[in-house]
Amino acid sequence: MRFQDASPDARAVVYAGIQADPLVARLATLLTDATPAQLVLARAVMNGETTDPAIWRAMVPSCFPDERSEAILRASLEVADRGEQVRSQFRGAVVEALTQVLLARRAGSSASVRRERRILFDGVRAEIHPYDVTVEQPGRSEAYDCKWSARGIGADVLHQLDDARSHAADEEEPLAVSLVVFDTRLACRVRLDRQTAPHERTGLVTFETLGVLATGG
Amino acid sequence: MPQPATQPLADVVSRALDALEALGLLAEEIEDEWTYVTDLGEAQRTRLQAIADRRPVDEVTADRAAAVDLAIEETGRIADAHKAIDWLSTFPDLVAMALDEPVGGAATDAGGAIDAAPTPRPA
């Protein structure tokens, strides 16, 4: 098993610009220590129509007054302000960046935590889509796919993750595979209940368990 | 007209359930997601109704009732069916939080087929 940078296609080049936007890093950093309630606030604002912060404060009173909530609200409104098409790319980039930051905390160094990587196995055709985030450490590597919502969970991603785990096992290399979903566990479970693709050995990280990425649970 | 200091929790949840149903109807326009939309809508309806059933005599303060009403107003601004699907998962949490209930619904967290632990394990 070996890791490799994904070949940059046109989509990747455009997306790399979004990933590099300082707003993505700022929001991801704010969310690393957010409570589940603050994560819901961020999701609602980034997916909402209202741009008046006073309305959001009144709509989510359990989060205010609080400095982190204010900062999350401000940054989330900036994402929402980017327009419908761009905001969806920003949201995805935020989830990936958040995952990367949390995993780097556990790894103790960001060196082994990588983005947009492919995983290659002997005699197996490489997947077209790279993994959003990987932790590359001998004997204990991990691969993550990040989703903005439970709706993003589908057969393709479940097969890709489980295939990677299975191929790694064939090579006697442990590879933990997980989904990180910026949504609640309830929504993910409802989504997964109808999925027939294998996912029994795929981890699921949601609002309720996001912190586990940093601690290792 | 001045707002009452408190409102029955059941009334607040009832308004939220109406808004949830309207969101679900909009979300159903995405035919490929019909099953997910109906499953999620039902799960969320059950979750919110369970709160009302568990707290039949509780009152909600005016600011918390207003928070739920603002969330309901926000769902009324959603015109896109794809966005409505996203709001089917988010809106009930805004309601739950206003009612001092946990995010995601604690009762739904047990069980399931998937491993919730993301740490590396031997293959």
What's the gist of this structure?
Chain A is an alpha/beta fold and 217 residues long. Chain A has helices at 10-19, 22-31, 36-46, 53-59, 67-80, 84-107, 155-170, 185-193, 212-215, and strands at residues 2-5, 113-120, 131-135, 141-147, 175-181, 202-205. In chain A, helix 3 runs parallel beside helix 5 (67-80).
Task: Explain what the structure shows.
The complex is a heterodimer of chains A (217) and B (123). Chain A has 217 residues and is of the alpha/beta class. In chain A, 48% of the residues lie in helices and 16% in strands. Chain A contains 9 helices and 6 strands, in the order βααααααβββαβαβα. The two termini of chain A are 26 Å apart. With 123 residues, chain B is mainly alpha-helical. Chain B has 4 helices and 2 strands. Chain B has helices at residues 9-27, 34-54, 62-77, 81-98; strands spanning 6-8, 59-61. Chain B has a two-stranded antiparallel sheet with strand order 1-2. In chain B, helix 1 (9-27) packs parallel to helix 3, helix 1 (9-27) runs antiparallel to helix 4 (81-98) and helix 2 packs parallel to helix 4. Chain B is globular, with a radius of gyration of 16 Å. At the A-B interface, helix 3, helix 4, strand 4, helix 7 and strand 5 of A face helix 2, helix 3 and helix 4 of B.
Q: Taking all residues together, what is the mean pLDDT of chain B? A: 88
Helix count of chain A? 9
β-sheet strand percentage of chain A? 15-25%
What pattern of helices and strands is seen along the backbone of chain A?
EHHHHHHEEEHEHEH
Number of domains of chain A: 2
Largest sheet of chain A: 6 strands, mixed
Mean pLDDT reading of chain A: 93
Estimate percent helicity of chain B: 55-70%
Radius of gyration of chain A (CA) equals 17 Å
Helix content of chain A: 40-55%
In CATH, the architecture of the largest domain in chain A is 3-Layer(aba) Sandwich
Oligomer category: heterodimer
- Estimate nothing, just give the exact number of structural domains of chain B: 1
Q: Radius of gyration of chain B from the CA trace?
A: 16 Å
For the termini of chain A, the CA-CA separation is 26 Å
Q: Order of strands across the widest beta sheet of chain A? A: 1-2-3-4-5-6
Which term fits the overall shape of chain B?
globular
